[in-house]
Amino acid sequence: MIFFRRNQLWREYYLEIDPIKQILRLKYNILLEPLTNKVHYQQINFSLDEVGIQNFWKFKPILHHYHINPVKQKQYLQLQIRQKSIKGIRIAKLLYEQKMTIDDLSSSVFKHFREIGSLDTATDYLLKLSANDS
Question: Which residues make Cβ contacts (< 8 Å) with residue 58, sequence separation at least 6?
Fold first, then answer.
């Protein structure tokens, strides 16, 4: 089981300890692609000794800005709907209720990463639209 934490310096992160290799692994700046569950993260290892732990506490990363291909995200959504996956059916239903097609979705749905544990951006967008209609 993985427990995610958040702070300003590392954003979403979690720690792994590998007692065999004697390392502490920090995975940080963790984000999910807009529609897929593909995870993007940065990683650094620290030795499980006094010096490694000191380096861990002093660690200040340079956070990468991840890039996404909106066309591939849109293709993924089309595939999910065509294959009638659980996600595809859910989003197709929401699109139908809003009398929309995939092409009607805001381009931001396909461009912005999301946090761990959040809804995919299409579902989130469509649920907000339906809440505004109520």
Answer: none
Asked if 33 and 112 touch (Cβ cutoff 8 Å), the reply is: no
The H helix count followed by the E strand count for the chain is: 4, 4
Per-residue pLDDT of the chain (134 residues; tens, 9 = 90+): 567 899 999 999 999 999 999 999 999 999 999 999 999 999 999 999 999 999 999 999 999 999 999 999 999 999 999 999 999 999 999 999 999 999 999 999 999 999 999 999 999 999 999 888 76
CA dist 69 and 67 (Å) reads 7
What number of other Cβ atoms are within 10 A of residue 84's Cβ? Answer: 10
Could you say which DSSP state residue 120 is in?
P
Which pTM value belongs to this model?
A: 0.85
